Amino acid sequence: MKKKPPVALEPSSLKKLADYLGVSPATVSVVLRDVPGRSIPQATRDRIKAAAKKLNYQPSLLARALRNRRTSTIGVLVPELGDGYHTQMMSGVGNQLMNAGYFYFTAHHRHRKNLIEEYSQMLLGRGAEALIAIDSALEHSFPVPVVAIAGHRPIEGVTNVLLNHRRAAELTLTHLYSLGHRNIAFMRGQSFSSDSDERWRNLVQVAREMGISVKSDLIVQLNLDMQSPELGYPVVGFL
Amino acid sequence: MKKKPPVALEPSSLKKLADYLGVSPATVSVVLRDVPGRSIPQATRDRIKAAAKKLNYQPSLLARALRNRRTSTIGVLVPELGDGYHTQMMSGVGNQLMNAGYFYFTAHHRHRKNLIEEYSQMLLGRGAEALIAIDSALEHSFPVPVVAIAGHRPIEGVTNVLLNHRRAAELTLTHLYSLGHRNIAFMRGQSFSSDSDERWRNLVQVAREMGISVKSDLIVQLNLDMQSPELGYPVVGFL
DNA sequence: TTGAAAGCGCTAACAT
DNA sequence: ATGTTAGCGCTTTCAA
Fold first, then answer.
1. Has domain A165-238 been given CATH number 3.20.20.140?
2. Which of A106, A142, A206, B156 is the most exposed place for a label (fewest CB within 10 A)?
3. pLDDT tens per residue, range B207-230
4. pLDDT on residue B234
5. Who wins on pLDDT, B174 or A192?
């Protein structure tokens, strides 16, 4: 079995390719994109495709985007990159995006207000046609479609995807209760994460309804600004 | 205190701005970028900057990139998005990149060979000026600088950043040994991750040197294709 | 001190 | 069946 040799050719441009072949750029463009409605002899088509492969032609998506006014790029705002929570959302988001033929720029802002603003502008400037903001405190609407996940507050024109914290509370507490537990400890999430308050409110509410008492000495507040499981070490006594 | 009203203006172009002001695009461009060497009256400068702010002008980084042949964009290849390991690297990478004024595209390939190839090409086509490949099985060199982290094999022109598995093994085993442990169990990483073999080799080697016996009934192999801590549940008996 | 013009790489409309 | 042209939004000579 012969090994494929390492490939590392200079990227050539459409025009060079056309010159090389003695045809017009338009023809090359049309052939390479399989645009219907233009009749071009199969021979020419083959010649062009072969040359493209041979010269390792890669269309400049940059130029194409400029010309088409379409970047096929989405901007993703996320508080942090290294954690398992937000990043797992990104994973799903990324999957769908790539399947749909989109690229995405990511920017993380660590919940810093000015960075949220700055980066969202940057993403737009860089050609993002829409924004997906995960747990990010957006402050105004945008000239492009925006979907917020766990958005901090409702914003005109921003679709906000929310967890059903009520249902979550019911599930958790019912589960523990059915196991026979009555002394339940609560870890409250960090205040900078938008879900924390809602989650807590619902937990307390559902607990009351179920007759589970929330004892103040069994409530601990997570404060560390980190996302790994270590976050919980101090309060559960590992440290 | 007055609330800032939501902002959502149409992005205007350099040319429109120039027309609006009755100056040439060149002048606007120069002023907005603070290009030295062109003497322009302060009054004009102020007028231009004010108008830019007022009309919410955002330069098209796309057009700029095309013109300058410089995208300030790096492509990042990663196996998976939702895990804590690779993503923590991405976090560091992302930080530095953003600090340095770079954007980055991310693509994840789940260790699928064809996707690795496809996406690296896409990233280049999209304007990436360099690639960072994390635990990705690259197969050839590239016309741009590439840094691999935990690269699967050495490739001409690709800088490979490797963990010192030997040292890691020494640290781990010494630690356990000093705690008095002699019966040590080993979990071998999934085979598709490039570090696994090296890590294992060194562990065995160091264990032998330290006189720690590696008992075959204390070796378990992780096989699940997932990255969360659940990965280890089966083998440690949680399930 | 400022403007006009060319051109980055591409595609769509309009010739031929 | 194919080529020519204009222009996406910007920057950079070169002129004025």
1. no
2. B156
3. 999 999 888 888 888 877 766 667
4. 72
5. B174
Choose which CATH entry (3.40.50.2300, 3.40.630.30, 3.40.50.2000, 3.30.70.20) describes domain A70-161.
Answer: 3.40.50.2300
Question: Quick one: which of B77, B217, B72 has its CA closest to B139?
Answer: B77
**Domain coordinates in residue numbering, chain B:** 14-59, 70-161, 165-238
The encoded tokens of residue A231 equal 């976050």
- Residue in A10, A80, A141 closest to B143 by CB: A10
Q: Is the dihedral of CA A128, A131, A134, A136 positive or negative?
A: positive
Residue type, B204: V
DSSP assigned state of A34: T
Alpha helices in chain A (DSSP H): 14-21, 25-32, 42-54, 61-68, 86-99, 113-125, 165-178, 195-210, 233-236
Residue A143 forms contact with B (CB below 8 Å) = yes
Task: Report the C-alpha gap between A233 and A235 in whole angstroms.
Answer: 6
Q: Which residues does chain A have within 8 Å of residue B66's beta carbon, measured at their own beta carbons?
A: 60, 62-63, 66
Residue B8: its pLDDT value, please? 39
The predicted model gives B182-201 an average pLDDT of: 87
Task: Answer yes or no: same fold for A70-161 and A165-238.
Answer: yes
Q: Which CATH architecture has domain A14-59?
A: Orthogonal Bundle (1.10)
A157–B11 C-beta distance less than 8 A: no
Whether B59 has a pLDDT exceeding 70, the answer reads: yes
Identify all chain B residues contacting A86, using CB atoms and an 8 Å cutoff: none
What is the distance between the terminal CA atoms of chain B, rounded to a whole angstrom?
57
In A113-132, the residues whose Cβ lies within 8 Å of chain B are 119, 121-122, 124-127
Residue B65 in this model has a pLDDT that exceeds 60: yes
- State pLDDT tens for residues A57-115: 889 999 999 999 999 999 999 998 877 678 888 889 988 998 888 988 989 898 999 99
Bridge partners of residue A73, in order along the sequence = A103
The pLDDT of residue B178 is above 50: yes
Residue-level length of chain B: 239
